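Risk register update: the risk of archive-format incompatibility is retired. Evidence:
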Amino acid sequence: MRLALTVFGGFLCIISPIVGLLPGPGGIFVFAAGFALMLKNSAIVRRVYARLKAKHPQKGQWVDWALRRRSARRRAKRDRERRHEERRGD
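Archived output:
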């Protein structure tokens, strides 16, 4: 089942430029859905994503936010608390 969902996610990512030619923002949503399916169901895609995120942290933050990942919420909360502590310390 995981393999089928991963393949279907890849298919959605591949057809997203074609859907993007249609009026409206459909290609973005099709790509996001396909990428989310692949990221949730494939360890290989997660490893590649982790490497990409290490090289380009700002892009990784946007993807985490868009996918509403729990790890992104934890990091954001930790960063907010750290900034709050730094302000109180100054």
